[in-house]
């Protein structure tokens, strides 16, 4: 019996099938530590790389797109399902993420979460809508980032610089925006900022420990500001 088990585990094709059934976190963190062959297989196997959302999975139809289950747990403010009219994730929501308990691990430039696709199959277009509200008027502008396979690193780096205690955001997933359908190949990042007044007290911004060491400025081709209404 032991010999049979050993034969199975030493056969790459069979081992690959077994590892592919592991919970995602175990496949990412635990399995590669068992031995060098397991570590090598986890890096070289297209099947396991797809299971870890490191490579696109064309076997999943666009209409049945799957969110990355590990990212849902690690970055909950980005995966809130809500079809209300206003962004709902705030500075406090970011600071309450698991990141706050292990900032050094998350901030690393080579942290694996940065390379992970947010969905399978990948999203290739991100619509960024920004709305600004002051005592005088409400304005908005929009930009589209195309030709990408949307990773969590890109989505995070795009969002974080906009956040302070007067800002909030929401990711509109496929089918949640009134302008798209479940089969649409774009996501919408909705950002809302209110003007700050002196009586609001000192400005509160996101602690630098929540910025990734690999973050770099990302160009968003915004259009002109459009005034929606005057107050």
UniProtKB/TrEMBL annotation:
<protein>
    <submittedName>
        <fullName>MFS transporter</fullName>
    </submittedName>
</protein>
<dbReference type="InterPro" id="IPR036047">
    <property type="entry name" value="F-box-like_dom_sf"/>
</dbReference>
